[in-house]
TrEMBL record:
Origin species: Streptomyces capitiformicae
Protein name per its UniProtKB record: DNA-binding response regulator
Modified residues (4-aspartylphosphate): D153
Keyword terms of this UniProt record: DNA-binding, Phosphoprotein, Transcription, Transcription regulation
Residue span, HTH luxR-type domain: 248-313
InterPro entries in UniProt: CheY-like_superfamily, NreC/VraR/RcsB-like_REC, Sig_transdc_resp-reg_C-effctor, Sig_transdc_resp-reg_receiver, Tscrpt_reg_LuxR_C, WalR-like
Bias type Gly residues, positions: 14-28, 83-94
Region (Disordered): 1-95
GO BP term, pick one: regulation of DNA-templated transcription
Length: 315
């Protein structure tokens, strides 16, 4: 081969007789105006079709880098969680509302049932922060937790719901963080409703209320609204429309709160088993209360008791 032909062959191979032979895979020479790739080891460049690492990280400013970076971001809607909720907390349900509640009732089973029904915060927005079975514990828990709303039973050991309201009057009057009370009771007697409303409660609902309606009532009370079961609103209107205080019934005052509950249910025709179920007490306890009521009122049987209660509009 002539010297001219040998020179042409060398030029095709890169101008040097010392370049890599075919199959060795040495690093390609950088193109014009490009420096060596920083940190790139020989023979470790990306395979054909793989995204450049710098582009995938969004470092580069060209459109290819932007597309690659956006393709790596997970779609929040694909997870089934609302955007901005983080998948936890009261906002995760989409309600966007939250209320802290204390349950005050002397029946533990009832408190457990209410908490199971409304206390799933991610679903209802209601967070139960405390419970209490009597007046003293109620005042202590309410003072320490400062809830927005208290679900308050009317009849409690230690003085009843009215006593809780009296001892928490300063918390109710707090203009910056008021504690509001919603009475939740088995009783729908006018004197019970009027008593707690005069004591400062924002509403009164009976224990026949549904879970969803109770949640709605809690939020309405938190907003400062007055909430009543339909039948009870009339009691309040009648009471506050009159300037005269209701007369004191000395016979009725002899009865305890529980005895009054049993009296009303007996007068409405409930059987002992039905009363026990409604008040979460035993049949034997119901019998004891009935005996005490008959003795205190000097009545002989439940028929006389029914007439007595009807005459005083307690039924």
């Amino acid at each position: 081969m002539s010297d001219a032909n040998r020179a042409n062959d060398l030029a095709v191979q890169g101008g040097s007789g010392t370049g890599p032979t075919e199959g060795q895979g040495g690093p390609a020479e950088p193109g014009p105006g490009q420096g060596p790739r920083p940190g790139a080891a020989p023979g470790t460049g990306p395979a054909e079709g793989e995204p450049n690492a710098a582009a995938a990280s969004g470092v580069l400013g060209d459109s290819g880098a932007t597309d690659a970076a956006s393709s790596e971001v997970p779609d929040a809607s694909a997870s089934g969680e609302p955007a901005g909720t983080g998948g936890s907390g009261p906002g995760a349900s989409g309600l966007g509302r939250h209320v802290r509640v204390v349950l005050v009732d002397d029946h533990r089973m009832f408190r457990t049932g209410v908490q199971a029904e409304i206390g799933q915060t991610d679903r209802t927005g209601v967070e139960v922060v405390g419970e209490a079975p009597d007046v003293d514990q109620a005042v202590s828990v309410i003072t320490s937790t400062r809830p927005e709303v208290v679900l308050l039973d009317v009849h409690l050991p230690g003085g009843g719901g009215v006593e809780v309201l009296r001892r928490c009057s300063a918390l109710m009057a707090d203009s910056e963080q008021p504690v509001r009370f919603l009475a939740l009771s088995v009783s729908d007697a006018a004197e019970d409703v009027i008593g707690v409303i005069r004591g400062g409660a924002r509403g009164y609902v009976t224990k026949t209320i549904t879970g969803s309606d109770l949640v709605d009532s809690i939020f309405r009370v938190q907003d400062g609204d007055a909430v009543f079961s339909p039948r009870l609103a009339g009691f309040v209107l009648d009471a506050f429309a009159s300037t005269d205080a209701p007369p004191v019934d000395e016979d009725l005052d002899r009865l305890t709160q529980r005895e009054r509950e049993v009296l009303r249910l007996i007068a409405r025709g409930y059987a002992y088993k039905e009363i026990a179920k409604q008040l979460f007490i035993s049949v034997k306890t119901v019998e004891s209360h009935v005996s005490a009521v008959l003795r205190k009122l000097q009545l002989s049987n439940r028929h006389e008791l029914t007439r007595w209660a009807t005459a005083r509009r307690l039924v």
